[in-house]
Amino acid sequence: MKDMMERIINVGIAGCGKSAQVFHIPLLKADKRFAIKAVLERSSDSSALLCPQAVVVRNFQDLLSRDIDLVVICTPNHVHYEMVRQAVRARKNVVVEKPFAVRTAEALELCELAKQENVVLSVFQNRRWDGDFLTTKKIIQSGILGRIVNYEAHYDRYAVLKNPTVWKEANIPGTGVLYDLGVHIADQAVQLFGMPLEVYADLCIQREDSLITDYCHVELYYSGKKAILCAGKLVREEGPRIAVHGSLGSYVKYGLDPQEAALQAGSLPAGSSWGAEPRRAWGILNTEISGTALRCAVETECGNYPAYYSNIYEAILGRAELLVTPAQACDVLRIIEAAIQSNQTGSRVRL
Q: What CATH number corresponds to the domain at position 110?
C-alpha cells in the first residue's frame, strides 16, 4: 500500500465543456497526486485528446459506480443540485463548478448531506487565487489604506454575440451574468468583508434578443463601507478591475489575472513564474505613510489556481481544513437571491 504522502486520488469528471477543458483537466493533470480515470460526455469524445488514459462514460450512474474518490461536476448550473446530491449519496468527494446550486435552500440541503456522509464538498471558486485579489487582500489587511470606505470590483467582457453553449443563453434557473461572473466577485467580497447587512441590485438585459440578464450592478452595504460589484457583457473598453478607497489612500488595479489565458493557450501550471504579471499590469497604490505621500506601482502577487486542488487533496486526506466550504457557497447564494429580490422590488434587501 502506498504511503499516505503518495496516495493517488482517482477522479471522475462530469461534463467536458469549457470549464473542464480550460480549468479542471489542466489543473488536475498538473498535480500528479490526482489521476483522471473517467469523463462523462453525453455524445462526444472531446476528452480523449486531453486525458487519453480516462474512459468515456455516457451516464452519471456509470461514473459514480467506478472506483473514484473525487467527482468534479462541470455540467449546466440547473442540474448541479441533483448531481451533487447523487454523488454525495454515493459517498464520493465532490468539487462542483460555481454556482453551487440555483437556490440557497438546495445548497443548505447539500451541506447537511455532505456532513452526514462525511465527504468533502467544495465549490470551484478559483478566483480567490487571482493575483489581483490576493494583492488587494494583502493591501487591505496591511492597513496602509486606513479605514476602508469603498470597494469596487468589475468582471466585464465584450460578448455581443450569444454564447454558443445553448443552455447559457436559455431563460432557465441559474443562467445570466449574476450566476456566471457575479458569483466570483460576490465570493471575493465576502472573503474580504464578510456578509453584508443589506443588498441592492440593478439587473438588466442589454444585448439585442437576449433572454438572460447580461449586466448586473450589486451594492453590498456594511457598517461604514460599501462594496460595488459589476459585471457586464457589453464593455469593450475596460475600466478598473478593482478599486479600493480608504481613509488614507486608494489602490486601483486594471486587467484580468493571466492564468485563464495561459491555461486556454495550453500551458500547465509549473515553475515560480506561473501566474506572474508583467510590471505594466501592476496596480497603483496612492496613500500616505506617517504623513508622507506615497504613489507607486505595487507588484501583483502571483496567481495560484493550483492551490485550490492542493487544498482539496489535503482535505480529502484529512490533513487540512477545506478553504472553499459549502457553507461559504451558501452565503454567496444568499447574496445572489437578495440581489434578484432587490431588482424585483427596487429596494434594499436586509440579510
A: 3.40.50.720
- Beta 148-154 vs 225-232: how paired, if at all? parallel
Which residues make Cβ contacts (< 8 Å) with residue 148, sequence separation at least 6?
A: 140, 193, 225, 244, 245, 246
- What is the DSSP code string of 177-191? HIIIIIHHHHHHHHH
Q: Do 294 and 160 sit in the same domain of this protein?
A: yes
Query: What is the rounded CA–CA span in Å between residue 323 and residue 117?
Result: 19
pTM of the model: 0.95
CA 175, distance to chain mean position in Å, is 15
Of 109, 126, 143, the last residue of a domain is 126
Name, in order, each residue with C-beta under 8 angstroms of 297's C-beta and a sequence gap of 6 or more.
279, 282, 283, 284, 285
Crossing angle between the packed helical segments 183-193 and 326-345, to the nearest 10 degrees: 110
**pLDDT tens across the length of the chain (351 residues):** 444 457 999 999 999 999 999 999 999 999 999 999 999 998 888 898 899 999 999 999 999 999 999 999 999 999 999 999 999 999 999 999 999 999 999 999 999 999 999 999 999 999 999 999 999 999 999 999 999 999 999 999 999 998 888 899 999 999 999 999 999 999 999 999 999 999 999 999 999 999 999 999 999 999 999 999 999 999 999 999 999 999 999 999 999 999 999 999 999 999 999 999 999 999 999 999 999 999 999 999 999 999 999 999 999 999 999 999 999 999 999 999 999 999 999 999 999
Question: Quick check: is 176 in a domain?
Answer: yes
Looking at residue 140, its amino acid is: I
CA 345 and chain centroid, separation: 28
| 101 in the same domain as 149 | no
Residue-number span of the structural domain to which 300 is assigned: 127-307+334-350
Coil vs helix vs strand at 340: helix
| 348 burial type by CB count under 10 A (0-12 exposed, 13-18 middle, 19+ buried) | middle
Number of domains in the chain: 2
Q: Are 208 and 262 found together in one domain?
A: yes
Of 126, 142, 172, at which residue does a domain stop?
Answer: 126
Q: For the chain, give the number of residues.
A: 351
